[in-house]
């Protein structure tokens, strides 16, 4: 029981430290004229770049997998190593995308909390109502964008799991029989990656709409 409590306290402390560090960062950036709104837009664009990179990594991994399942025995080891490299590249791209979405979420929530607090500083009821309406509209578009981002992020998981399973199969049994067992996977992966790319493009479109409003 004490051990569990210790773990929880450590996690809470880490979150508090992280929150303080982020607040200090935002305050420092604001002093040089780069406000949370600017940071948010910059991080939306960063997520878009990461999504485009992930698309290329996943397509490249699929292409190498297609080469692998149709290769001759003599080239198996080299093809496996290339496929493993492509899988690792796709995993790194997925991790980078998740990290950038998390950072975007952090600054966005901080901005919205600050905006809500500042509504109480208005003396004019009319201006306060206008600002509140703008906040609600911004948050609605933000939620739409974030839902699309998280959806594309989640869609990467089963594809990466399939890639990893196939890497492990080949690692443990690098022969023609193992290749034959994997040939049926290619068609399914192709469909899943095509769906992933469509979701990412939808997310990028939603991001562009959001950026347009923020600017």
Structural commentary:
- The chain is mostly helical and 215 residues long.
- The chain has two domains: 1-34; 35-214.
- 89% of the residues lie in helices and 0% in strands.
- It contains six helices and no strands.
- It has helices spanning 2-31, 36-68, 76-119, 125-172, 176-182, 185-214.
- α3 packs antiparallel against α4 (125-172).
- The mean pLDDT is 87.
If helices are DSSP runs of H or I spanning 4 or more residues, what is the number of helices?
Answer: 6
User: Could you name the ranges where pLDDT drops below 50 across 5 or more consecutive residues?
Assistant: none
Helical coverage, percent range = over 70%
Order of helices and strands: HHHHHH
**Total number of distinct structural domains:** 2
Give the structural class: mainly alpha
Question: Biggest sheet, open or closed, and with what strands and sense?
Answer: none
Number of strands: 0
Give the assembly state of these chains: single chain
| Overall outline | elongated
Overall average pLDDT:
87
What fraction of residues sit in β-strands? under 5%
Radius of gyration: 23 Å
End-to-end C-alpha gap: 51 Å
Element layout with pairings:
Layout: H1 2-31, H2 36-68, H3 76-119, H4 125-172, H5 176-182, H6 185-214
Helix pairs in contact: 2-3, 2-6, 3-4, 4-6
């Amino acid at each position: 029981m004490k051990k569990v409590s210790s773990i929880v306290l450590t996690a809470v402390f880490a979150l508090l430290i992280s929150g303080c560090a982020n607040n200090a960062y935002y305050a420092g950036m604001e002093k040089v004229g780069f406000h949370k709104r600017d940071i948010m837009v910059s991080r939306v664009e960063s997520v878009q770049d990461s999504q485009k990179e992930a698309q290329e990594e996943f397509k490249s991994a699929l292409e190498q997998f297609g080469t692998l399942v149709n290769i001759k025995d003599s080239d198996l080891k080299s093809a496996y190593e290339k496929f493993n490299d492509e899988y690792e590249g796709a995993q790194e791209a997925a991790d980078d995308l998740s990290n950038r979405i998390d950072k975007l979420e952090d600054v966005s929530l901080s901005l919205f909390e600050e905006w809500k607090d500042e509504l109480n500083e208005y003396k004019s009821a009319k201006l306060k109502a206008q600002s509140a309406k703008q906040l609600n509209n911004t948050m609605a578009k933000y939620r739409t964008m974030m839902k699309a981002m998280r959806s594309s992020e989640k869609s990467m998981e089963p594809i990466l799991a399939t890639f990893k399973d196939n890497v492990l199969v080949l690692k443990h049994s690098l022969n023609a029989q193992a290749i034959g067992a994997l040939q049926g996977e290619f068609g399914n992966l192709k469909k899943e990656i095509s769906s992933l790319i469509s979701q990412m493009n939808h997310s990028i479109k939603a991001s562009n709409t959001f950026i347009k409003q923020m600017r």
